[in-house]
Amino acid sequence: AQLAESGGGLAQPGGSLRLSCAASGFTFGHHAMGWFRQAPGKEREFVAAITYLGTSTYYSDSVKGRFTVSRDNTKNTLYLQMDGLKPEDSADYFCAAARGSYASSDRSAYRYWGQGTQVTVSS
């Protein structure tokens, strides 16, 4: 199984970025998916998750109302639309595939992980 993130980069405060995560080697549509992030010197933290059909989404309090998670099961791709970016959003962002169809904020619920894409928010 492979997960490959893309779309990271430099954004100004208040700006937007859209992350993508291309999945292969497993049945993408059978798994809930999540986004996590890790800033230097900090633990990896939950950002957002989406159920296997995309009917339900979940967000951390820090990104709720600014970030939107979505998926296209026909393209085996997960997305994270990030609007209203803040400097504290700077981190490496990782997508992950859950062990089953239920979304979770718990890292241990995820079986496959991508390598991450870096997001930097700075003026």
> How much strand content do the residues show?
over 45%
Percent range for helical residues? under 10%
Unreliable spans: none
Compute the average pLDDT: 97
Distance between the termini: 37 Å
Shape: globular
The structural class is: mainly beta
The largest pleated sheet is described as: 7 strands, mixed
- Determine the number of helices (DSSP H or I, runs of at least 4 residues): 0
Task: Give the helix/strand layout.
Layout: E1 2-6, E2 9-11, E3 17-24, E4 33-38, E5 45-50, E6 57-59, E7 67-72, E8 77-82, E9 91-98, E10 110-113, E11 117-121
Parallel strand pairs: 2-11
Antiparallel strand pairs: 1-3, 3-8, 4-5, 4-9, 5-6, 7-8, 9-10, 9-11
What does this structure look like?
With 123 residues, this protein is mainly β. Helix content is 0%, strand content 49%. The chain has no helices and eleven strands. The protein has strands at 2-6, 9-11, 17-24, 33-38, 45-50, 57-59, 67-72, 77-82, 91-98, 110-113, 117-121. Strands 2, 4, 5, 6, 9, 10 and 11 form a seven-stranded mixed β-sheet that branches. It has a four-stranded antiparallel β-sheet with strand order 1-3-8-7, with no helix packed on it.
Give short descriptive properties of this protein.
123 residues; mainly beta; seven-stranded mixed sheet; four-stranded antiparallel sheet; 11 strands; 0% helix; 49% strand; globular
Quick structural overview:
By secondary structure, the protein is mainly β. The chain has strands spanning 2-6, 9-11, 17-24, 33-38, 45-50, 57-59, 67-72, 77-82, 91-98, 110-113, 117-121. Strands 2, 4, 5, 6, 9, 10 and 11 form a 7-stranded mixed sheet that branches. Strands 1-3-8-7 form a 4-stranded antiparallel sheet, with no helix packed on it.
